[in-house]
Write a structure and sequence with these properties.
The structure holds two protein chains of two kinds. Chain A is α/β, with parallel strands linked by helices. Chain A has nine helices and ten strands. In chain A, the strands form two sheets. In chain A, strands 6-7-8-3-9-10 form a six-stranded mixed beta sheet, with helices on both faces. A four-stranded antiparallel beta sheet of chain A has the order 2-1-4-5, with helices on one face. In chain B, α2 crosses α7. The chains are: A alpha/beta, B mainly alpha.
Chain lengths: ~240, ~230
C-alpha cells in the first residue's frame, strides 16, 4: 500500500464551544479517489476545509507527505466549492486570475487558461461573463480553474449537488480524467451512485468523528458501523 | 437677460464659473479617489488591529460639516498658519484641498462597504488560490469597479454642491475662485436672480447628466453580471 499523501493525527476543530471535528485520524493515499460520506452536519465540508488549510485545527495535526501542512504544500492543492465562486470577469478572466495568483506569467496563464477551457468544453464561452453561465457551466469552469493549477490533490465539496444529470456526467468525466492523470481526488458527496462510480476509498463521518474507512465498494455494500449502515439504507441514524 | 438666454448664449461669465467649478470638483474627486479607494479597500478587505476605530472614524467623517473643514483649511493656509508661506489661500488650490478633505472620507467609507461585501463572497476562493494581499486588493477594486463608480458619483455630488468650505478658503473672488454654488449664493443675495437661476439649472443638469451616464454604465455592467 502506498504512503499517504495527506493524513491527520488527532484532528479536532471546535467552534461555539462545540467539537465539530474530534479526534480524527485518517489517511488519504495518492493518485486515488476518496469519497467522504455522512449525513448532513457530519463535518464533511469542514474536514475538507481543514485538509486544504482554509481553517486552522483546534487540536491535532495535518501532515502532507509526512510533513506539516505549510504554504508550499497548500500550493499543491486545489478546491472546488459546492457553490462556485465566480469573479466578475469572463470565463477566461477567471482562469487567468487563478493562474496569475499561482505565479504564472501573463502569457503562460493565458495559454494554460485556454487549454483548460478547451478541456472543460467551454472554449466557446471564453469571453462570456462567468456569472452568466448556467449552474453546470459555472461548476465545470470552477473545476477547470482548479485543475488548471495542476494540483496534486483536488478537494471537491459536493460539486454536483444542484446539477442536472448531464452536468453531473460532465463533471464526473472531468474528475475521472484528472484522476487518470494522477491527481488525487477527495470528494464529498451525498449521492450513493456517485460514490460508487467515483470512489476507490471511502471515509464515513458521523457527528464530527470518523466512524468507518476503507474501500468504497466494501463500505457501501457492507457497512460495518450502524451509522454508515443507516446512511446507505436511507434511514435516519438514532444512537 | 433671463436665465435661459444666459445659458444658450454661452455667456462668458457663466462659462468661466462653470469651468472653474468643474475643474475644482473633478480634481478634488480624483484626488479623493486616489486616497479613498485604497484606504476603503484595505479597511474592507483586511482584518487588522484598529479596524473598528478606522471604520468609526471614516463613518463619522462622512458627515463632516463643510464649514468646519473650511475653517480648518483656512487656519492651515492663512498667513499665520503652518502652510501660510505656500500662498494658497483664496486660490482654486485651496478649494481643491478643502473639497478633497470633505470627499475622501465619503469615498473611503463607501468603498469599504462595497469591498467588504465583495470580499466576503471571494474570501474562501482567494484563500484557496493563495492570493496575496496586494493582488487581493487589486482584484477586489477591479471587480467592484462598477459599484465604485457610484461611490465616485457620491463624491462628485458632495463636491459639486458644496458651498461652505469653498467660500471660506476661496473667498468667492470674481474671475479667481468664484464657482457655481458660491455664485448662486452671492447673486441671490444681490437680487441677480437670472444668473443665479442659470447656474442652478446648469448645476441640476450636470447632476442629472452624470447620474444618467452612470446608470447607463451600471445597467450595462449589471446585464453582464459584473455588479
Amino acid at each position: 500500500m502506498s504512503a499517504p499523501l495527506i493524513e491527520t493525527r488527532g484532528l479536532g476543530f471546535r467552534a461555539g464551544g462545540r467539537a465539530l471535528i474530534a479526534e480524527m485520524d485518517l489517511s488519504i493515499r495518492g493518485a486515488r479517489r476518496t469519497v467522504v460520506l455522512g449525513a448532513n452536519g457530519a463535518g464533511k465540508s469542514l474536514l475538507l476545509r481543514l485538509l486544504h488549510g482554509l481553517l486552522r485545527p483546534s487540536t491535532g495535526r495535518i501532515l502532507w507527505q509526512g510533513r506539516p501542512l505549510d504554504r508550499a504544500a497548500r500550493a499543491c492543492q486545489a478546491m472546488v466549492f459546492q457553490t462556485p465562486v465566480m469573479m466578475r470577469r469572463s470565463a477566461l478572466g477567471n482562469l487567468r486570475f487563478a493562474l496569475a495568483a499561482h505565479g504564472l506569467s501573463r502569457a503562460a496563464a493565458r495559454t494554460r487558461a485556454e487549454a483548460a477551457l478547451e478541456d472543460a468544453g467551454l472554449e466557446a464561452r471564453a469571453a462570456h461573463p462567468a456569472r452568466l453561465l448556467s449552474g453546470g457551466e459555472q461548476q465545470r469552469l470552477a473545476l477547470a480553474r482548479a485543475l488548471a493549477l495542476a494540483p496534486e490533490i483536488l478537494f471537491l465539496d459536493e460539486p454536483t449537488a444542484s446539477l442536472d444529470q448531464a452536468s453531473t456526467l460532465a463533471i464526473e468525466t472531468q474528475i475521472t480524467a484528472a484522476s487518470r492523470r494522477g491527481v488525487t481526488v477527495v470528494l464529498v458527496t451525498h449521492d450513493i451512485g456517485q460514490a460508487r462510480r467515483l470512489g476507490d476509498d471511502a471515509l464515513f463521518l458521523s457527528e464530527g468523528r470518523l466512524v468507518e474507512a476503507g474501500p468504497a465498494a466494501a463500505l457501501l455494500d457492507a457497512p460495518r458501523s450502524p451509522e454508515a449502515e443507516a446512511w446507505v439504507t436511507g434511514r435516519v441514524y438514532l444512537p | 437677460m433671463d436665465a435661459t438666454w444666459l445659458i444658450l448664449s454661452w455667456d462668458p461669465a457663466l462659462i468661466e464659473i462653470i469651468g472653474l467649478s468643474l475643474r475644482v470638483t473633478f480634481t478634488s474627486v480624483l484626488i479623493a479617489c486616489v486616497f479613498g479607494l485604497p484606504l476603503g479597500a484595505a479597511a474592507g478587505a483586511f482584518r487588522f488591529g484598529g479596524r473598528v476605530v478606522v471604520t468609526v472614524v471614516l463613518n463619522a467623517l462622512m458627515g463632516l460639516p463643510p464649514v468646519v473643514v473650511g475653517l480648518v483649511v483656512y487656519l492651515l493656509l492663512s498667513a499665520s498658519g503652518p502652510l501660510g508661506p505656500l500662498g494658497l489661500l483664496y486660490t482654486p488650490k485651496a478649494m481643491i484641498i478643502a473639497q478633497t478633505l470633505l470627499v475622501t472620507p465619503l469615498v473611503a467609507a463607501l468603498t469599504k462597504d462595497v469591498i467588504e461585501a465583495l470580499n466576503q463572497e471571494y474570501a474562501e476562493q482567494f484563500a484557496s488560490l493563495g492570493v496575496g494581499p496586494g493582488a487581493r486588493m487589486a482584484a477586489l477594486l477591479w471587480d467592484g469597479r462598477f459599484s465604485l463608480l457610484t461611490v465616485a458619483l457620491a463624491g462628485f455630488g458632495r463636491a459639486v454642491a458644496e458651498v461652505g468650505a469653498v467660500i471660506i478658503v476661496g473667498g468667492n473672488i470674481n474671475h479667481v475662485t468664484r464657482v457655481m454654488t458660491t455664485s448662486i449664493a452671492l447673486e441671490t443675495s444681490r437680487g441677480n436672480l437670472d444668473l443665479a437661476l442659470a447656474l442652478g439649472i446648469v448645476l441640476l443638469t450636470l447632476a442629472i447628466g452624470v447620474n444618467a451616464a452612470l446608470m447607463a454604465v451600471r445597467g450595462a455592467a449589471a446585464r453582464a453580471a459584473y455588479v
